[in-house]
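Re: How this chain folds, sequence and tokenised backbone to follow

Filed under: protein folding, tokenised backbone structure, sequence and structure records.

Contents: The amino acid chain and a row of whole-number tokens, matched residue for residue.

Body of memo: The sequence and its backbone structure tokens, given next.
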Amino acid sequence: MKQSEIKALSLEQLEQNIAVEKDRILKLQFAHAITPIENPMRIRQSRRLIAQLMTELNAR
């Protein structure tokens, strides 16, 4: 998700996207702990997206 797309989201959409990404990262980390997932970079991408969403949320 690009920064311009993140800025266009409403507060409710930001909070919803943060919750979805946090749920996704928990599932990815759990799956990776059991057996290595194919693309472990997805964990890093999810963490980065959460940080971008939280930064935009705190800026408002």
In short: Helices lie at 3-7, 11-34, 41-59. DSSP finds three helices and no strands in the chain. The mean pLDDT is 92. The radius of gyration is 13 Å.
